[in-house]
Amino acid sequence: MAIRDSKAGDSKTGNITRNFSIEELQDAANLMRGYNLVALCAAGSGHAGGTLSIMDITAALYLRAADHDPKNPAWADRDRIIWSAGHKAPALYMGLGIAGFCDIQDPVTLRKLGSPFQGHPHWLKLPGIEVSSGSLGQGLSIAVGMALAARIDGKRHKIFCLMGDGEQQEGQVWEAAMEAGHFPLDNIVAVVDCNRLQIDGWVKDVMQVEPLDAKYSSFGWEVLRIDGNDMCQVVDAFEKARAVKGKPVVILADTIKGKGVSFMENQAGWHGKTPNREELDAALEELGLAARIPVAQLLENAQNFQTEASRKLEAKMPRFSRDYWWNSGETMKAKMEPTRKGFGQSLAQCGDDERVVCLGLDISGSITISEFYAGKPERAKRWISVGIAEQSATAAAAGMAREGKLPVLGSYATFSAARNLDQIRVSICYANLNVLIAGAHAGVSVGADGATHQALEDLFAMQGLPNMSVVVPCDAEETRKATSYLVLEHQGPKYIRFAREATPIVTDGRTPFVFGRANVIRLRVEAAAFADAFETKLAEDYANESEDLSIVAIGPMVPEAMRAAWILKQEFGYETRVLNMHTLKPIDTEAVIRAARETGVVVTAEEHQIGALAWRVSSILTESPELYGLPVITGAIGVKDRFGESGAPWELVKELEVSAEHIALKAAALIALKKKCIAEEHLTLA
Ligand SMILES: Cc1ncc(C[n+]2csc(CCOP(=O)(O)OP(=O)(O)O)c2C)c(N)n1
Asked: How far apart are CA 104 and CA 110, in angstroms?
């Protein structure tokens, strides 16, 4: 077999610094698997299965197939490597480490706040990363763009693009495949990691993508099908691909998900799972690396990085006379549960209605839509697995709704309420059809996954669409009630947004939930249980108590607003009216007007870019005749026009300045202003 010399070398002289033999590449891949698992163990979240399946390809690509120079990452003539399957980021980091773009030990800070090793790759964080990815199915289109740019500039470098086989379900992949075949772009080499598994199970069961050979061939591609865990075949395929002229090349690499670690191999459950310390030790033993990798030292490095990140974060937090953080004291203990649980509980119940159909987008267990069919085989025909195809699923849901069904679809909010925006707009909203879209794992709650997965903008689009109703429940119980109401009773397009992380339970079966009507929540007395310290009433049933301010909050910011009310009472003696505005659209205008008139200070709190709630409330304040001539002091808490980043969800609440402490600090300043205005007779309250 003819094997080309490695070009990992010096971009100035063209000298090759090392030629890697097959044995050396095999050894490198093995070592990379080990360091990969240490990083995943230290992170506590991430993707073991798909990083292990692609590691032989990664080693061959970074050490042998691609022309690049780690000392000169921006070398204009380097080959480009696009990690379209962004969740396999740790494998990419291993490739960069083994090639010398960074130290292979550095990715042990994976997914930690402030680390360049984000949950999904971000090219602005680390030299050597070519593009930012994480939303599946976009990489091949970027490759087309880079390949066309190279052609325009007369450049001869290659564009490598790594994808998963489940990822092939995204329609955009086939738009790009058509374009690459049409132009034809023989500078593209795509690799599909065909490990036959995705999140919900076997690719063939979720949504069959094979025969990929025939599909790519028919789009004008040269197809090479290999065993992607056989280093000789991998190296040979990259050689052959480089020689192909006149058409793009795809390497369909049959691999084993979890390759190298017996208890991870071919297990769907290891897709998005990381090894604990015992599992890590067992895995390293199996890989023959127990003595070669300094595990304890690496884990200590990760811990030290975390300690420093936490120290910096705490230094930025507003300070009060005591610590009011969740469950930090002896009183006000909160019970925590993820809001997504309520979604599944509701679907388990309301799925009895034969009109209800649920569409699966390959993330069914964690968003709890799987509760619809769990243990209920009679509902099987009403569970439609569409795979990773948010756009088509959205329009399919419209088709079902047009036929009288009550469709529910959900994914990460970034994918179920952004990727498919035009389908929602035209096929669902313009047609005014009865579809419930679930924006799961919204806000900062996906934490370590990083910015690509944190929906912080979804509410702008959803509430901006005519006919769309938008509900953002505050806890798991309210999510259950809201889901049942929206699925069975509410007519028209509807969006429900909920979170992944456990957040405080602040409502119960008796708490009112009326669509479109806010609840008023008042702190009565510090109690053993956080929820018991508050009284909740439907806003229209609430009698004015002339509080010092109002906080209008949505979703997980409702418990934060309640905690802010506690801080404000304890620290300053202030009384707070918290408005739980669970229905963002149609918003309870009356409750906002009353809050403004009766308290004079209105602070909005949203775990979203500032504006989805704040600007809606502002428009009520400026447009309501009842408030003409009445100065109202306002403030907004939310994300300040920036992307999130990897970190633990509660760290991000602090980093993005959406904690109760931030609300309380702002509120106290506004109340001081109000008092000054009253003293100077600029402000009179109703
Ligand atoms: C557009 C989009 N939808 C959903 C997801 C969530 N997601 C991350 S990985 C994954 C499964 C990917 O399967 P596959 O491409 O086969 O990768 P592998 O099994 O090799 O990890 C999904 C659905 C995403 N990242 N992007």
From this structure: 12
Cβ contacts of 497 within 8 Å, gap of 6 or more = 413, 417, 438, 439, 442, 443, 455, 458, 459, 462, 470, 471, 472, 555
Task: Find the farthest-apart pair of alpha carbons in the chain and give their distance in angstroms, rounded.
Answer: 90
Assess whether the previous peptide bond of 107 is cis (omega < 30° from 0). Answer: no
Contact 61, 161 (CB under 8 A): no
User: Is the distance from the beta carbon of residue 363 to the nearest atom of ligand 1 less than 6 Å?
Assistant: yes
Residue type, 19: N
CA pair distance 653, 665, nearest whole angstrom? 15
AA identity, residue 610: I
Q: How far is CA 128 from CA 123, 235, 462, 550, in A?
A: 7, 21, 36, 49
Give the ligand 1 atom nearest the CA of 452: 25
- Contact call for residues 522 and 578 (beta carbons, < 8 A): yes
C-alpha of residue 52 to centroid of ligand 1, in Å:
15
Output the pLDDT for position 586: 98
Q: How many CB atoms within 10 Å of residue 76?
A: 9
- Provide the token pair at 61: 């690509």
Nearest CA to ligand 1 atom 9: 87
CA trace torsion 133, 134, 137, 142 (10° rounding): -10
Q: How far is ligand 1, taken at its centre, from the CA of residue 588, in Å? A: 38
pLDDT at site 10: 75
Say what the pLDDT of residue 12 is: 80
Nearest residue to 624 via CA among 601, 598, 592, 602:
592
Query: Would the CA dihedral through 176, 180, 181, 186 be positive or negative?
Result: negative
Amino acid (one-letter) located at 225: R
User: SS3 for 198-262, per residue?
Assistant: ECCEEHHHHHCCCCHHHHHHHCCCEEEEEECCCHHHHHHHHHHHHHCCCCCEEEEEECCCCCCCC
Tokens of 158: 């290659």
Which residues, at least 6 apart from 311, have a Cβ–Cβ distance to it below 8 Å? none
394 neighbors 421 (Cβ within 8 angstroms):
no
Distance 106 CA to ligand 1 centre (A): 25
Main-chain dihedrals φ then ψ at residue 301, nearest 5 degrees: -60, -45
Tell me the β-bridge partners of 437. Answer: 409, 495
Instruction: Tell me which DSSP letter residue 188 carries.
Output: E
Is the Cβ atom of 199 under 6 angstroms away from ligand 1? Answer: yes
Contact assessment for residue 158 and residue 65, using Cβ atoms and an 8 Å cutoff: no
What residues pair up with 190 in beta bridges, in sequence order? 161, 250
Tokens 């505005």 — which residue? 581
Q: What is the value of pTM for the model shown?
A: 0.96
pLDDT value, residue 16: 66
pLDDT at residue number 332? 98
Question: Is 112:306 a contact under the CB 8 Å cutoff?
Answer: yes
Beta strand 583-585 with 469-471: parallel, antiparallel or unpaired? antiparallel
Segment-wise mean pLDDT, segments of 10 residues, the chain, 686 residues: 46 76 98 98 98 98 96 96 98 98 98 98 98 98 98 98 98 98 98 98 98 98 98 98 98 98 97 97 98 98 98 98 97 96 97 98 96 97 98 98 98 97 98 98 94 98 98 98 98 97 96 98 98 98 98 98 98 98 98 98 98 98 94 96 97 98 98 91 66
